[in-house]
Design goal:
- The protein has helices at 17-27, 41-60, 76-104, 112-120, 135-140, 178-202, 206-227, 249-259, 282-285, 288-294, 305-320, 323-335, 337-340, 343-360, 377-380, 393-421, 427-447, 453-473, 481-505, 507-531, 538-576, and strands at 5-13, 31-32, 124-130, 142-149, 152-159, 230-232, 237-245, 262-267, 363-364, 367-368, 387-388, 391-392.
- The chain is of the alpha+beta class.
- The chain is built from 21 helices and twelve strands.
- β4 (142-149) and β5 form a beta hairpin.
């Protein structure tokens, strides 16, 4: 949910502004309305310096520490970046030299000056390679074979005429022999080792770099807040605008009373464009990073994270659809917990969901668990049937989940529209929701036999009449009825075609799960063929199955992340009317 905000206007003597902002920074609660990018020369310098420290830290995180290092080095960040730059330059030169060495290797070690002396005497060397040397060439030309390498014969032809011709394409003449190139390569390799040792020694200063970066970011944040103030009374006064969560403002007011600061506080409204702070439970908060990928809600919008947490998890598990793959995700997330950081709990949660759904789909590493004779019948009865009404059960379930997802989006849109615009100005939205959601509910009850045909008929007629009134005649109470009718027809066309495409989009859940299952089955089949009658066949069997399913898990995870995200960002957000144009709550604080 979106945290309620209180808007504050602080009115200060201009000379007291910097000291006041520093105290606000210590409190760490107030989001001063300010730029997030450099706005003057001072902020540009601070941002540039912070970027240097950030790059240095990023580079050091990939370096193994030295066993013993107590040295200190002037400007650490610049030292790290200079060393990285020198190492990269040396590696680039090494790559070029190794390529040159491969080109010169067939010609071996030779005297470069000797070639120049021959050229001065009118004797030019021509370099060639071929798979078969024609014996006639040796009779017609001064030809000398140099080496044989990878099926090719390398040879040189000496010519003293400008009209010289040869039936092969000439190779570039080597500029250096192998030994001189190898010496230079060895020297550069020593330099790279020296740079690596130096970086390993600097690794112990990583905490110092982090502290300096934190100080720079805090200083930059404070400066940006300071220049954001509006001057008044011929620059004698400075006014700052800020926002603080309503449930946290008691601590702020205590500080303001102690400092005798004049301020005006009022409940924030949408027109103030307050920052957005999301407040969710531990489970839902894991998915806030997905909401931020699209954009935080506006102050008067609903928080979609709770819906994303349920449906993204369900769709992800649907796309994976394998109990074994779910267990792999759980194990990988636990093993890489330190590396993944905040993403690890999300990985474990998605792994658990995949394990449960994979069990319901009776699939374990692409093997149908219903074929296991040792599995109790009571357990098998908990699994979903392979066929529903003569169709593939997974496909039918994907469409049903999609219909529920879209219906929920329309209900949310109706609630949000009524909340913001009022009931009278939301009759068109109510009409569409009643028609589609009501129709789905009544149709479902009729199919289950809960409602008989006569009742169903009259309920459908009633829903149709009420929906038509809202869609065609009451969509805008302040507009000509004929215009309302025309607008309703156009909206009907767009909604009908759009909804059909939206529902069919959920078939991707079935398609991705099916593709992963079939690819896993293929690896299993190849492994069984390699196994044969057993014996030494176990080795290729294990290699094929392990490597194959590892690749399959990696591809399935990629698809299971992208496509469920698309279904939430496009289908759900479009039908719920979500915009996501809010700005993130970023309080002025010492730790950035």
């Amino acid at each position: 949910m979106v945290t309620e905000m209180t808007k504050y206007d602080f009115i200060l003597m201009s000379g007291d502004a910097d000291a006041f902002l520093a105290k606000l920074q210590q409190v760490g609660l107030v989001d001063i309305t300010r730029s997030v990018k450099p706005v003057d020369e001072q902020s540009e310098k601070l941002a540039l310096l912070a970027e240097i420290y950030r790059k240095a830290l990023s580079a050091l995180k990939q370096v193994e520490p030295a066993e013993f290092a107590e040295k200190t080095y002037g400007d650490l960040a610049v030292n790290v970046l200079d060393t990285i730059s020198a190492k990269d330059e040396a590696l680039n030169q090494l790559a070029q030299l190794r390529k040159e060495l491969e080109e010169s290797r067939p010609w071996g070690n030779f005297d470069v000056n000797g070639i120049k002396r021959l050229a001065e005497q009118g004797l030019k060397l021509h370099f060639y390679k071929t798979k078969v040397v024609d014996p006639a060439w040796k009779e017609q030309y001064a030809l000398s074979e140099i080496s044989e390498l990878e099926g090719y014969t390398y040879f040189v032809v000496v010519a003293d005429s400008e009209e010289y011709e040869f039936p092969l394409k000439e190779l570039p003449a080597p500029t250096r022999d192998c030994s001189s190139i190898e010496k230079e390569i060895k020297s550069l390799e020593d330099d790279v080792e020296k740079y690596d040792r130096h970086l390993a020694e600097l690794k112990c200063h990583e905490p110092d770099l982090q502290r300096e970066l934190d100080k720079l970011l805090s200083k930059l944040d404070l400066h940006l807040a300071g220049v954001a103030g509006e001057k008044a009374a011929e620059d004698y006064l400075t006014v700052f605008e800020g926002f603080v969560p309503t449930d946290k403002e008691a601590a702020l007011r205590e500080m303001l009373e102690q400092e005798h600061v004049f301020y005006v506080a009022d409940k924030a409204v949408v027109d103030d464009n307050p920052p957005i702070k999301l407040k969710n439970n531990k489970f839902v908060s894991m998915f806030e990073m997905l909401t931020d990928m699209y954009g935080r809600p506006k102050y008067d919008e609903f928080d979609p994270t709770v819906f994303i947490s349920i449906f993204f998890m369900l769709f992800f598990a649907f796309c994976m659809g394998d109990m074994g793959y779910g267990l792999v995700l759980i194990g990988a997330s636990l093993a890489l917990k330190k590396m993944l950081g905040k993403i690890a709990p999300l990985g474990i949660t998605l792994g658990i969901a995949t394990t449960v759904v994979g069990f319901l789909f009776h699939t374990f590493f692409s093997v149908d668990m219903l074929t296991w004779s040792w599995l109790p019948e009571g357990v098998k009865k908990c699994m979903l049937p392979s066929q529903i009404a003569g169709f593939d059960g997974t496909m039918v379930l994907a469409l049903l989940v999609g219909i529920v997802h879209i219906c929920l989006a329309m209900i949310v849109k109706t609630y949000q529209s009524t909340k913001v615009k009022g009931f009278a100005n939301s009759l068109s939205t109510w009409g569409w929701t009643l028609l589609i959601v009501g129709g789905v509910i009544v149709g479902g009850l009729a199919l289950m036999g809960v409602m008989d045909k006569a009742v169903t008929k009259w309920v459908i007629i009633g829903i149709g009449v009420l929906s038509a009134l809202g869609i065609f005649f009451l969509n805008d109470l302040h507009r000509n009825p004929l215009l309302n009718f025309g607008s309703g027809l156009w909206e009907t066309y767009n909604t009908a075609t759009g909804l059909l495409g939206d529902v069919l989009s959920y078939l991707r859940l079935y398609a991705l799960g099916l593709a992963g299952a079939k690819l896993g089955e293929a690896f299993n089949a190849i492994g069984v063929q390699a196994l044969g009658d057993g014996g030494a066949g176990w080795i290729p069997f294990v290699l094929i199955v392990v490597v194959g399913h590892t690749l399959n898990v990696a591809m399935c995870v990629l698809g299971a992340f992208v496509h469920p995200l698309r279904l939430n960002f496009l289908e759900f957000f479009k039908n719920s009317g979500y915009e996501g144009s809010g700005r993130e709550y970023h309080p002025l604080k010492t730790e950035n």
